[in-house]
Amino acid sequence: MENITLGQIGQAIALITTISAIFFAVFKWYKNKSDKLDDLEQRIIVLEKDSRDNKQENLILLKGQLACLKGLKEQGCNGPVTQSINEIENYLLNKSHDIY
Fold first, then answer.
1. 76-96 burial, b if ≥16 CB within 10 A, otherwise e?
2. Which of 85, 40, 86 is nearest to 65 (CA)?
3. Which DSSP letter does residue 10 get?
4. Structural Rg of the chain based on CA atoms
5. Run of H or E residues at 56
6. How far apart, in whole angstroms, are the C-alpha atoms of residue 48 and residue 25?
7. How far apart (Å, rounded) are the C-alpha atoms in residues 62 and 56?
8. pTM (2 decimals)?
9. What does each C-alpha distance from 42 to 5, 10, 39, 47, 94 come to in angstroms?
10. Positive or negative, the Cα torsion across 40, 43, 44, 45?
11. What's the pLDDT score for residue 100?
């Protein structure tokens, strides 16, 4: 039977350490990449919610402008007021028929 030398023990420890370091590095890289994807997915969810909120806010503002223009028309303003009313009503009508 052969004797095991200190050099062989050192080589075995170095080999185990190297293999462990490689596995640790790959795991850390994978986890970091996975965390970045999770962060990206969360940011997309937030942006989609913000986009929906902005669309609702814009619709409210547009309806407010339409109401103001109709009030001006009732007071006798004409020309660009009537044209703007027609454009906004056409826009709202076309948007109501769009399928998302």
1. eeeeebeebbeebeeeeeeee
2. 85
3. H
4. 34
5. helix 6-74
6. 35
7. 10
8. 0.56
9. 55, 47, 5, 9, 33
10. positive
11. 47
